[in-house]
Amino acid sequence: MASQLRVMSIYEGFFSGGARALHTTVVAGLHAGGSHHHAVLSIYGAMRRETILQRMEDDASYRSLRAAGVEVRPLGRRIGGDTAARKTFSPAEVATAVAHAERADIILSLKEQPLRLVNLPGFPRKPVVVCLHRCDPENQGSALVEFKAAVADGRVAAAICCAESTRSAYEAAGIPSGLLEVIPNGVDLSRFRPVPARWRAALRRSLGVPVKAEVVTLAARYDPMKNIPLFLAAARRYLERAPNGHVLLCGAGMTTANAELCGLLNDLFDDEPRYLGRLHLLGIRPDMEAVFAATDVVALTSTSSEAAPLCLIEGAMCGAVPVSTDVGDTAAIVAGHGLITPPDPEAISAAWSEAVDRRAEFAPRLLGSRERFSHTRMITSYATVIERAHRAAGLRVPQRL
Fold first, then answer.
1. Domain of 367?
2. Amino acid 47: pLDDT
3. Is 167 inside any structural domain?
4. 78: which of 180, 223, 240, 357 is 20 to 30 A away, CA to CA?
5. Is pLDDT at 30 greater than 80 in this prediction?
6. What are the contacts of 143-149 at 24+ separation with CB within 8 A?
7. What is the pLDDT of residue 88?
8. Residue 374 backbone dihedrals phi, psi, to 5 degrees
9. What is the per-residue DSSP string for 87-132?
């Protein structure tokens, strides 16, 4: 359709993570709506992260985009993960990126890292909307420098922040406040929802968890920002205090193939290895809605960088009580239907037990918050920003930082 707005997203690559899952929800939803035609350009075809190689074609977000009819185009780079090792692009890569960008009306950059491609002198001057999903701009390598360069050159039409903490952090880092707009994260409520008791029992059996267990789940990649040592220290105390307690760890690197994780577990449980029988390493799961529906508590122990963790929202919409450290916008997300804890193992494990005990109390509040976290609201808001940025194309002037 000639009237469709042509939108190209640029990803550093495909790998398991909340930002890519959320962006996929947005792109697939806007593409299905009919007024946009979306495509994705991935700089890398595979990413080595969290101790494993994650191929684009194996990624759940990639498969979801393709199932929605969204074209995913590779730039040609084979393996990423150390962007400092390859800051330059070959003439062939530049030509490929330019050819794809020429067919778009507007560019979405998933986080600020892809802006090093957008900032190349020969890259088409299309309005760029940058999608920001963390609150630590100073800790993103050269990405903040690239972001500021794109702003100063007049390329950036808007920056969508997933949280108020994100907006505050980037404004403090020198990004003009007029470019920053907050659109809170949302999830597909038809996918993330509570299930009947008999389904919940079946899901638990499929995970190797007793039907009447008290289940705490962490959904996170193995990364320093997630503070896995703090989570495991809390898990040790929880398994001691809750004889019927079980702990699930899902995400990239959450398997026995991760030697560093296994070392942590050996150190923490060396004197009581029997507790490890109630700690389950599930790795990357394409069915997190099933895991969360089988869960009593969705936990997060990050102490930095997080903005609006998608796992807390997904878990809560499935009926799990969110319990998190106070980082980014987590306090606002959890308010009224979950608990915020200090970054202390004993306090965290006690909060998990409290959340299990109060689950019946929290249940109606969780149900009452569903519309607030609807992905439909989020997708509509993204469309508004994208279309406004496109209409304003040609009216922008370079901004002095």
1. 197-373
2. 86
3. yes
4. 223
5. yes
6. 143/111, 143/112, 143/113, 143/115, 143/116, 144/112, 144/173, 146/112, 146/113, 146/115, 146/116, 146/119, 147/112, 147/115, 147/175, 148/174, 148/175, 148/401, 149/115, 149/119
7. 85
8. -70, 135
9. -S--HHHHHHHHHHHHT-SEEEEESSTTHHHHTSTTS----EEEEE
How long is the chain?
401
- Residue 54, SS3? strand
Identify whether residues 299 and 384 lie together within a single domain. Answer: no
Same domain, 35 and 145: yes
Indicate whether 328 belongs to any domain.
Answer: yes
Higher local confidence (pLDDT), 49 or 357: 357
Distance CA 115, CA 146 (A): 6
Find the helix or strand (DSSP H, E) in which 321 lies: strand 321-325
- What the block records as the tokens of 249 is 């760890």
Q: 255 with 182, same domain?
A: no
Residue 399 in domain: no
Q: Are residues 181 and 201 in the same domain?
A: no
And the tokens for 49?
């992260």
The reported pLDDT for the residue numbered 76 is 82
The stretch 250-265 carries a mean pLDDT of 95
* Phi, psi of 267, deg, nearest 5: -65, -40
For residue range 118-171, what is the model confidence (pLDDT) as tens digits? 999 999 999 999 999 999 999 888 999 999 999 999 999 999 999 999 999 999
CA 2, 24, 69, 13 torsion: positive or negative?
A: positive
**Residues 291, 330: one domain?**
yes
Q: How many domains does the chain have?
A: 2
Closest CA to 209 of 255, 250, 252, 245: 245
In sequence order, the β-bridge partners of residue 63 are none
C-alpha distances out from residue 377 to 25, 30, 104, 179, 374, Å: 12, 12, 25, 21, 6
Q: How far, in Å, CA of 354 to CA of 210, rounded?
A: 20
> If you average pLDDT over residues 385-395, what whole number do you get?
85
Please indicate, yes or no, if residue 92 is contained in any of the structural domains.
yes
Note whether 374 and 186 are within 8 A (CB). yes
Predicted confidence at residue 82, as pLDDT, reads 52
Nearest in space to 300 (alpha carbons), one of 266, 250, 252: 250
Give percent of the chain above pLDDT 70. Answer: 95
